[in-house]
Every structure is written in structure tokens, then in C-alpha cells.
Design brief:
By secondary structure, this protein is of the alpha+beta class. Helices cover 21% and strands 45% of the residues. The protein has a six-stranded mixed β-sheet.
């Protein structure tokens, strides 16, 4: 990774990802991921892996593509009501850096309005980012909800 990468560049990338989810524009969002990218939402606090434990989500690129296509399909249940989201991201920190990428943590709050119901999600993101030319790509995103082990309704869209 180049030494000239500024925290503002990382924040701008995270805000761009949030903007795709807020619209929601899953076509644009999925393009931020590498071909081997994963999205993981653990079901318990401090869960060590997604393979040997149940997760709320553990999607590879193929599963993300399936969810994306289903989300925009005219007969999809998600089309019964408008989905509106608002993400707030803060406390962005680089926790690790290598020649080709970095690990970034941040806090988030996300409000989702769907089917006349407003739901608040909050927690911590961990992004493993690759540098591809002058851009970032998401190799892995972990979403640790503060209430991951609580009662959750249906999560209609990626958070």
C-alpha cells in the first residue's frame, strides 16, 4: 500500500459504499467488492469464524449476486414496499496495513425504513480493503451488530 493514502480517502470510500446502500443501489455496491469478496455478519459477539458457527449473513460474491438480483426482481417481496436507509459512519481507524491493502474499523448506525417500520442497527464495521491502482476494493466486510444475539426482525438489505 502506498504511504500517501490519506485517512480522508478511506473515509470517502466508506461513505461511497454507504451511499450505494442508502439509495439502495446494489449494482454499484457489489462492484466495490473483489471477485473473492465476502460479507459477514456474526450471530454472536466476538465470533471467531463464519465457517464453524451460525451467522446472520456469510455471503461470498456469488451469494451477493443472487441477493442483488432477487432484490430488484419485479416479483420480489422486497418490491412490495420502498426501502429507505441512512448510514452514519464514524471513528474510522486503520488497524493494519500491508503492501496491497489495509484493515479499517469504523462505528456505524443505520436506520432502515421498510413496510412502515423504522429499524435502527448499530455496531462496528471491519473492512479488509485491497488497493487496486488508485482505488480500493473490499475483500472482506464484517458487520458486528451491538445486539447480534438479540431478537432481530428480517434484515431486508445489506447493512
Amino acid at each position: 500500500m502506498s504511504d500517501d493514502i490519506d485517512l480522508r480517502d478511506i473515509e470517502a470510500f466508506l461513505y461511497r459504499e454507504a451511499s450505494f446502500l442508502d439509495r439502495p443501489d446494489l449494482d454499484g455496491w457489489i462492484e466495490l467488492y473483489t471477485e473473492d469478496g465476502t460479507y459477514w455478519m456474526p450471530a454472536i459477539e466476538d465470533q471467531v469464524d463464519a465457517i464453524n458457527h451460525i451467522s446472520l449473513f456469510y455471503d461470498d460474491r456469488v451469494m451477493m449476486e443472487i441477493r442483488r438480483r432477487n432484490f430488484v426482481h419485479p416479483r420480489a417481496a422486497s418490491k412490495d414496499y420502498i426501502v429507505r436507509c441512512s448510514h452514519i459512519i464514524s471513528n474510522v481507524q486503520v488497524t493494519d496495513s500491508t503492501n496491497d491493502g489495509l484493515t479499517v474499523t469504523s462505528n456505524f448506525q443505520c436506520v432502515v425504513y421498510y413496510n412502515s417500520k423504522q429499524t435502527l442497527y448499530a455496531g462496528r464495521y471491519t473492512h479488509e480493503l485491497l488497493t487496486v491502482g488508485d482505488e480500493f476494493r473490499i475483500r472482506h466486510k464484517r458487520v458486528d451488530l451491538i445486539n447480534c444475539d438479540g431478537v432481530l426482525g428480517s434484515i431486508i438489505i445489506y447493512i
